[in-house]
Specification:
alpha+beta, globular, 32% helix, five-stranded antiparallel β-sheet
Amino acid sequence: MEATIALRLPRDAASVPLIRRMLDAALASLGVVSTIRDDIELMLTEACSNVIRHADPADEYTVSAAVQRDLCTIRVVDTGHGFDPAAMTAPSPSSESGRGLQIMRALADDVRFDNRHEHGAVVCLEKKLSYEPGAPLSVF
């Protein structure tokens, strides 16, 4: 079984809690354990927040999430200028921002960045899923 949601969202801070709540509700209804859902929520928040802060001149972005039994794959796609994740430097300990890529890398089981020069960027986050006993997907 595969379950997929995809949304085209305005590049606006209000879109982040919307997609975060939608995905969390979908994962909860499938019976994904709360600690995994918390990790996914934070990874998604960081990826979407980066688009909102850095993806000029895009007016919108796309988020898709697919669940295939024990794996959730999230793709956040913008149409900005792209970026080079290897060129990003670690923030100083006193910095109040700049930790989004580190957080995504720490929480995801796999993170991929596809820089489409002058056509935006794709962030792909994968997280292995665990289910509560008796959850709908725990029997497949």
